[in-house]
């Protein structure tokens, strides 16, 4: 018998940065506070997106400023910006300096 894990869905409509961060944290499998490409891929797959491996790779490339292979604290703003621009997720506030 296979067991499936169910994740909370991303809130409908516009999403605040805090809601996005809380939603994304459920995919942090190792609990280190960072989001790896594999964890982001799992998150995107829960949204029923196509080509999640490619989108996760591109998102981590865009957000990972220190090139350690994961998106951590200071880089989360860059991930939000990527999700807003390229994944067409609606963010109601992007109050971080994203450049």
TrEMBL record:
Span of domain EF-hand: 15-50, 55-86
Gene3D superfamilies: EF-hand (1.10.238.10)
GO molecular function: calcium ion binding
The name this protein goes by in its record: EF-hand domain-containing protein
Superkingdom of source: Eukaryota
The keyword Oxidoreductase is assigned to this record: no
Keywords: Calcium, Repeat
Cited PANTHER family: CALCIUM BINDING PROTEIN
Entry keyword annotation includes Calcium: yes
Matches recorded under PROSITE patterns: EF_HAND_1, EF_HAND_2
Source species: Miscanthus lutarioriparius
InterPro entries: Centrin_CML-like, EF-hand-dom_pair, EF_Hand_1_Ca_BS, EF_hand_dom
Lineage start: Eukaryota, Viridiplantae, Streptophyta, Embryophyta, Tracheophyta
Pfam families linked: EF-hand_5 (PF13202)
